Structures are given as C-alpha cells and as structure tokens.
C-alpha cells in the first residue's frame, strides 16, 4: 500500500509525523489544559491515531535490509506457506500462529496482523486505565524510544510485551490476566523476566524496598558486572536469547558494550517518577504501585547484565512500561498547581529523547 514511499524515508516519516502530533499536544495542553476536545472528539482522535499508526506500520514494504528481523520472519512465513512443518519447540505459540496464518493470508497481511496485535492491546489498555484520557497515554506509548523498532524489527518481542500490558490492564479479572501473561510467554520466552517480576509483586508490595533494591544493583553491577553475563549464560537463562549476553557483534549504537550510563539515566526517569508520585506525594493507587514494582524489578535485572552486547533487548523488558509509569498518575490525581502545563513539558522531554536518538542513529 505504501510502496511509493522510498524505504529510506519510511522511518523518518514516522518520527517526524509523531513530532508534529506531540508539538500540537504540547501547544493545546499549554492553552486549553486536558480538555483539548470534548469526549466524543477525543474518542475519534484516539481511534484515528490507532488506525493510522497500525496501517502505516503494518503495510510497510517487506524488507530485511531496513527492517532486519522482518526479512527473517518473512522467510519463515514463506517456508510455512510452501508446506514446511513446525520444528521449533521454543515459543511454540508463535510458530503455530505463523503456520496458521501462512495457509490463509499473504505475507503482507500477516505483517498487518502483527502490527494490529502489537498496537491494539496498548490502545485497549490505555482505555481501561484512563477512559477518555487514553489519548495522551496512547500517544506516549507509540512515541516511546523502542516502540517503532519493536514494531518493525523485533516484531515477536513487541507483540509479547503488548499482550503482557493488556494482561496487566485486567487488574481484577485474574483469568484474563493470567491467560494473557501466559500467551506473552509462549510467544517470546524472554517475557519470563517481567512475568517473574509480576509474580514477585503478588507476594511483596513495598515500593520503597523495590527502590532500594534497584539502587543496590547498580554498585553490584559496577563491581561484579563482568562476571554476571557468563553466570546467567551458564544457567541457560532466557534460552536462545541468552546469547545476547556474550555475543560481541552489534548492529547500532544501542548494542555497544560497557556500563551504559546513558541507558541507566533513561531508565532512571521512570524510577524517579515512581519515587516522586508514590513516596514523596503519597499516591496510593494499587494498580500504579504494582506496575511500578514490576518496572523496577525487570529493570534491575537488566542493570545486572548492562555490559552485554544487545543489552537494549533486555532493557526493553522494562522500558515498554515507561510511558505508563511516567504519565498514568497525571490523570488520577492533582499533583501540581498547573498540572496540564507540567504534563506538556514532560511530554516534550519524553518524546524529545526519543527523537534525539532517532536523529543520532
């Protein structure tokens, strides 16, 4: 559908379009506050954003050059379409899904379906959490640092995290919650890390202790970090993805080795947000506290393996929750005298980091 767009322009068009939308939201928040549109028009705006992003991402040209993993998934899809049988036992649900799709649709429709499964759960979760205010949270989710990359490249991991988010939004419906979390794991085994963090929050809930633990792993990683990656590798942690802990080659600036202070500062933004809202301002929202504890736990694991090549792939296992941790409280309680203006500037800072990383990539 979008074959007329040169592949090298595909990603820049997305980021620059999001820049315009974010700047518009910034201006509107500065002048009109939360009530930019009436509730009906906000419904339309949210749905239009969902539809536009899904179609643009899902109908992108199939390319292994510009969207690396897409080429691999396309090859696997065509093999199944030609009659190949499922031979993988790991992440079996994904293999079954691809096999079924290969018999009833084209590869292009398959990637459109993948985009839908990636983006729609974020939209639904935003609606369940914030109702008519979901537009702002949804916008921040789709302008997060890793959103585009995990929708066009790390496709399977992106779908798994979105289904995980959807599961968390079923706060009181345990059957749906646990079923969706299990589905996320069966799609991508690395979801064991955020699922383990979720299970931990069921038994221990004190956010101050989670904060202390997160701070504690930083010196542990600084002192013992070089020993931790081989240790987790020896345990077979993460299955075939444990190879990311010790492999030496890398594909972009986010995969370089060493203690990633830039990554740590980025992760700290959500940690500080949780500290500010929960500890300093006494925000007692049970859903938010659990989400924060999950984020901190999963992010702490990444800090332990921060030196690994492709450590961004482990960082993503907490980063996909960042927008929720930072923006959710703004729509639940009044924290600032001119809260809509504070929100406007934080939106600019949040997307500004994403956009700057796009520019220097």
Compact overview of the structure:
This protein has 361 residues and is an all-alpha fold. The chain is built from 16 helices and no strands.
Report on the structure:
With 361 residues, the chain is mainly alpha-helical. 71% of the residues lie in helices and 0% in strands. It has helices at residues 7-32, 39-58, 68-81, 92-102, 107-130, 134-142, 147-152, 155-169, 174-187, 192-203, 207-234, 261-280, 286-304, 311-319, 322-327, 339-360. Helix 3 crosses helix 4 (92-102) and helix 5 packs parallel to helix 8 (155-169). The model is unreliable at 235-239 and 243-255 (pLDDT under 50).
Which helices and strands appear, and what pairs or packs with what?
Elements: H1 7-32, H2 39-58, H3 68-81, H4 92-102, H5 107-130, H6 134-142, H7 147-152, H8 155-169, H9 174-187, H10 192-203, H11 207-234, H12 261-280, H13 286-304, H14 311-319, H15 322-327, H16 339-360
